[in-house]
Structure formats: structure tokens, C-alpha cells
């Protein structure tokens, strides 16, 4: 008898606790979204709409040359647009090249050729994106405005290389949304996802989880190549850039 009364009290307490947690969850937050482009944007947009539905305040940070975010269209979330010194067309032509290569030439090229070509295209994209990041970080009015907005969290797509750097500079926690990176390099090296090469095909390979011995071997080599390229890319491009920006922000 006594123990069943204890049990009811405990159940009641758990229930009250659940309600409290639910209540805390319903408090609305202030979210800064830093999306990627194309499918990355479509992917994040669904999340943002859901956040707005739950009464969170969402601001989307977007550059004036965005090829896929239509910031003139009225939405449930607001846009913060900053100008960049290039046109939407620059993004689009790089993307067209990339998709054309991946669809029509990559399937008939060697692993090494694909790796090198991806590196080449990514280098051009990174140059464009870093130009965008540069303009953003050196836009004092924008940065002050972002600081004053007191965001609770940055929701970003690491397709754009400096989104984590922005969260770091604003001193705000970061949540990442990513479809996939080549060789799943970011997910494996930055996010520690397990990707055993015998079962998980490495993008851009189109195998499934059932691979023959030779396909597994191919997959393994692709992982090695993509990992090395990613490592070199971070070492030669991003590390230096991040240090420069952090230096210039802390001294200016
Ligand atoms: C959002 O706010 C509206 C109006 O204040 C309220 O009616 C609605 O229940 C809230 N929705 C959630 C999920 O909290
Ligand atoms: C963006 O949205 C505006 C307003 O809804 C619309 O007039 C315009 O055609 C859209 N632009 C693109 C490129 O879809
Ligand atoms: C790629 O190779 C396949 C099979 O050898 C062939 O059918 C296809 O036409 C080739 N595609 C291109 C773009 O060369």
C-alpha cells in the first residue's frame, strides 16, 4: 500500500518534471541561420519553417549574390542581407561546371582524376566563399548589429567555410546542418561519425552498403584521397584564413 503511494508520488513528480521541461522547450529562442546554397538551403529552410512555427525568432544571414535564397520574398523568418563584391552569376557558373562534371564525366574518370577535379572546383568555390566571408567580417556595421542582436544559437551549414568562425566570434553556440561532404571528410574528421569503408560508400561514389571486394577497395582508396585533400585544404587555406580573421577582429 505504502509503496504504491510512493510510486504515485514519483509518477506525479516525473509528470510535473516533464511538464516543466516541456514548458522550458516552449520558451522562444533567437536563432541566427547561416545557410548553404541550393539543396543545402532547401534542406535548412524546412527546419527554419518548423522553428518559426514553434514561435522562435529566426534571422537568415545571406549575401547579396546568393543564387538560391530569395531574400526579397516575404517569409516567416527575417533576412539580414550583406553586400559582396561579386554577382550571383559567379556562383551559378561554378556550380554548373561542377554539376556537369559530376553527372557526365566523373562516372568515366579514374578515382584520382575525380579527386583532383573535385579539389580544383572546391578551390575555386572556396576562393569565392572566402571573399564573401571577408566582406562579412570586415563589415563593422553588420558585425556590431549581429552582436547586439544577442542570438542564442547559430544554425549553420558548413558548405560555407566560415560559419563556425562567425559563431566563435559572436561567442554563441553552433548547431550544424549538413547533407554530406565529399568523402564525408567533415563528418568523419570534425564530427567523428563512424564510416567503415566496407559498408559506407564515400561520396561521390554511387555504391550501396553491399559492395564487392573490388568496390570496397575502390571505396577505401576514395576515402584516403578525400581525407588527404581535406586535410591539405584545411592546412593550406582555412587555418591561415581563420587565424588572420581572428587576429584582425581582436586587434580592430
Ligand atoms: C505560438 O504563439 C501563438 C501566439 O502567441 C500561440 O497561440 C501558439 O500556441 C504558440 N505556439 C507554440 C508551439 O508555442
Ligand atoms: C523572389 O521573390 C519575389 C517576391 O515574391 C518574386 O517577385 C521574384 O520573382 C522572386 N525571384 C526569384 C528569382 O524567384
Ligand atoms: C561512360 O561510359 C559508359 C560505359 O562505358 C558509356 O556508356 C557512356 O556513354 C560514357 N559516358 C560519357 C559521358 O562518356
Automatic annotation (TrEMBL):
Highest taxon in the source lineage: Eukaryota
GO molecular function: glucuronosyltransferase activity
Keyword Signal: yes
Transmembrane regions: none
Entry keyword set: Glycosyltransferase, Signal, Transferase
Leader sequence segment: 1-28
InterPro entries cross-referenced by the UniProt entry: UDP-glycosyltransferase (IPR050271), UDP_glucos_trans (IPR002213)
A matching Pfam family: UDPGT
Keyword rRNA-binding assigned: no
Family: Belongs to the UDP-glycosyltransferase family.
Name the UniProt record assigns to this protein: Uncharacterized protein
Organism: Esox lucius
Source organism phylogeny: Eukaryota, Metazoa, Chordata, Craniata, Vertebrata
Amino acid at each position: 500500500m505504502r509503496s504504491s503511494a510512493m510510486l504515485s508520488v514519483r509518477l506525479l513528480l516525473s509528470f510535473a518534471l516533464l511538464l516543466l521541461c516541456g514548458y522550458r522547450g516552449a520558451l522562444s529562442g533567437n536563432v541566427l541561420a547561416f545557410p548553404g546554397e541550393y539543396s543545402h538551403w532547401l534542406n535548412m529552410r524546412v527546419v527554419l519553417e518548423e522553428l518559426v512555427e514553434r514561435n522562435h525568432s529566426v534571422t537568415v544571414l545571406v549575401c547579396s549574390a546568393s543564387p538560391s535564397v530569395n531574400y526579397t520574398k516575404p517569409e516567416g523568418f527575417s533576412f539580414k542581407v550583406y553586400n559582396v563584391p561579386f554577382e550571383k552569376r559567379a556562383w551559378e557558373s561554378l556550380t554548373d561546371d561542377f554539376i556537369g562534371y559530376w553527372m557526365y564525366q566523373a562516372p568515366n574518370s579514374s578515382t584520382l582524376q575525380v579527386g583532383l577535379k573535385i579539389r580544383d572546383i572546391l578551390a575555386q568555390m572556396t576562393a569565392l566563399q572566402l571573399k564573401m566571408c571577408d566582406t562579412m567580417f570586415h563589415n563593422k556595421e553588420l558585425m556590431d548589429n549581429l552582436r547586439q542582436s544577442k542570438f542564442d544559437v547559430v544554425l549553420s551549414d558548413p558548405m560555407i567555410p566560415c560559419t563556425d568562425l562567425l559563431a566563435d566570434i559572436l561567442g554563441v553556440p553552433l548547431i550544424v546542418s549538413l547533407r554530406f561532404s565529399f568523402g564525408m571528410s567533415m563528418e568523419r574528421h570534425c564530427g567523428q561519425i563512424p564510416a567503415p569503408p566496407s559498408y559506407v560508400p564515400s561520396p561521390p561514389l554511387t555504391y550501396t552498403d553491399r559492395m564487392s571486394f573490388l568496390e570496397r577497395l575502390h571505396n577505401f582508396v576514395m576515402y584516403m584521397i578525400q581525407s588527404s585533400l581535406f586535410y591539405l585544404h584545411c592546412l593550406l587555406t582555412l587555418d591561415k584564413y581563420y587565424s588572420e580573421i581572428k587576429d584582425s577582429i581582436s586587434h580592430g
